[in-house]
Specification:
The complex is a heterodimer.
Chain A: E1 4-5, H1 14-23, E2 25-31, H2 32-35, H3 43-49, H4 62-83, E3 92-94, E4 100-102, E5 109-115, E6 118-124, E7 128-135, H5 145-149, H6 152-159, H7 163-183, E8 219-226, E9 230-237
Parallel strand pairs in A: 1-2
Antiparallel strand pairs in A: 2-6, 3-4, 5-6, 7-9, 8-9
Chain B: H1 32-45, H2 66-79, H3 88-92, H4 98-110
Helix pairs in contact in B: 1-2, 1-4
The chains are: A alpha+beta, B mainly alpha.
């Protein structure tokens, strides 16, 4: 599976339908500018956004407003194309931790991420998906960030990566962790220092803090460089029941912070 | 989950502020934690701390993302080393505004951290 670039509302969704049909999941990315309507006051926009439309009046940052509108349009359009329904017939709702889901639709899981000018949406007919995107050269190394997000194994392994590639590897590790935490609906409640991945790995797998692999092969993790400068990662849970929704196997959740 | 009721924290006052955020009463001192939040958030966002009033929302008004939250926690740890033992979630979850974050910080640094 490769992320598919969607160039706007007029593009064909056939590649996405085909990916979902063949592999059960699809990752789509798009430019905000390609998905931003000319008129944010248009009644049709209100119809498509549904309950999310009320949020527009509360977002004061123009860039955040553009991202919010474009990302919801992209997600609902992609989901509608796979489900064979109009975007305005879908209601996007949010779990307490902020995880989006389609209300009343249990045969398609969704995930959303954005950075700067690019959006990414994940769809799966398997049980869960999480996606994350960051600028591949976003500075994270040397800010103390690595101590907040890396396991002891990752910190040591990062030191083995040549210096010019080290920040990029930290960004990739971060997007993998974000994707996984989104997929299992934990978000910031996850302690990112208590599960991890390996820098420069070919077969990405979930690791414990000491670097030993977590048993179970139901999760797949992939990272891609898209549009030349964005790191996209996806975590997909495939319980192996032919894509039927399944909630039996608990994900690896090392330690949660106290709920607030 | 319902959070336990906490006793009023002992505020680590740091004297009268050099500048007051808009919206504060003229006679009200600014708690050290609010000052710290404004200065460290300003550092991460690259904008003047004077613009950062307590009612500003981290997401909708300031466009703060998850990497910025981590950077903010790193910066705040320099001022309050005890925060190193507190998870990212326990610092930020439920904090919609800068004022909320300052209040959370006051709880965390004004009480024993377990």
């Amino acid at each position: 599976m490769r992320p598919w670039l969607c160039r706007g509302p007029g593009a064909s969704w056939d590649p996405v339908r085909e990916q979902v049909r063949s592999s059960g999941a699809s990752v789509i990315y798009a430019a905000i500018s390609d998905w931003l309507p000319d008129d944010l006051g248009d009644d049709r926009l209100a119809a498509v956004l549904g309950r999310d439309h009320a949020r527009l009046g509360r977002i004061t940052k123009p860039q955040a407003l553009r991202r919010f509108v474009a990302s919801r349009l992209l997600l609902k359009s992609a989901a509608g194309a796979v489900l064979g329904t109009a975007p305005e017939e879908l209601e996007l709702a949010y779990k307490p931790g902020g995880r989006p889901y389609l209300r009343g639709i249990d045969q398609l899981d969704v995930s959303l991420s954005h950075t700067e000018e690019l959006l990414v949406v994940g769809l799966t007919r398997h049980s869960r998906i999480g996606v994350d995107i960051e600028l591949a050269d976003r500075r994270m190394l040397g800010l103390g960030t690595e101590r907040q997000v890396c396991t002891p194994y990752e910190l040591e392994a990062l030191q083995q990566v040549v210096e010019e590639l080290r920040n990029g590897e930290l960004v990739r590790l971060w997007t993998l962790k974000e994707a996984y935490s989104k997929a299992i609906g934990q978000g910031l409640r996850f302690r990112f220092t208590e599960f991890g991945f390996s820098p420069r790995d070919r077969q990405v797998q979930l690791l414990r803090p000491d670097g030993s692999p977590v048993a179970g092969g139901e999760w797949s993790f992939t990272s891609w460089l898209v549009a030349g400068r964005y790191m996209v990662s996806a975590a997909v849970h495939d319980p192996g029941f032919g894509g039927r929704p399944h909630t039996g196997d608990a994900p690896f959740v090392p330690r949660l912070s106290t709920a607030r | 989950m319902t959070r336990p009721t906490l006793p009023p924290p002992v505020l680590p006052w740091a004297g009268p502020p050099a500048t007051r955020p808009a919206g504060d009463r003229a006679d009200a001192p600014v708690p050290a934690t609010l000052r710290a939040v404004r200065e460290e958030v300003a550092r991460v966002l690259g904008q003047p701390s004077q613009e950062l009033t307590p009612e500003l929302r981290l997401e909708d008004d300031l466009d703060v993302d998850s990497v910025m939250l981590i950077e903010m926690k790193c910066c705040l740890e320099h001022r309050y080393p005890e925060l190193a033992e507190v998870s990212l979630a326990d610092v930020f979850l439920g904090c919609g505004t800068l004022g909320d974050l300052a209040d959370r910080l006051t709880e965390l640094v004004g009480l024993p951290v377990g």
